[in-house]
Amino acid sequence: MYKPIHEIKNEMGMNRFIVFSKRLKREIRLYNDLQYDHRVLVETNLDIKNYCERPHKILILAAGEVIETIFDMWVNYGDKEEFVSSCPKSRTRTYIVTRLRAYIVYRGPPLTTLSILIAPDVKLNGLYVIRFDCCND
Fold this sequence. Notes:
Blueprint: E1 17-21, E2 26-30, H1 33-44, E3 50-53, E4 57-62, E5 65-70, E6 73-76, E7 81-87, H2 93-105, E8 113-118, H3 119-124, E9 130-133
Parallel strand pairs: 7-8
Antiparallel strand pairs: 1-2, 3-6, 4-5, 6-7, 8-9
């Protein structure tokens, strides 16, 4: 089980949702509309045994630049687990590509499967657009 990372360098201008999770029996903090919508899907999915928001921070050197990012959510289905990262519409293409580069380069524990959420898919059905295995070969 992970503990949420609440440190944020600059919270100015960020949306914040503080909601109570009946499943986790604690308050959770979410930082954009997409995370909030995904949390509703996760909270109501009976196949999911446990989850944690903002579970793991990575700091990596990719393409000559240092990238620091935090996964949005860790989801445990009992027989498998995955990390989730969201790409809200408000983010620029450069931001999204930089984050994807960091996730692809990152091979350390605990990453096994990563899902990238794109706004329309969460709104429609919670389907993930990009899902790839990041197992160490």
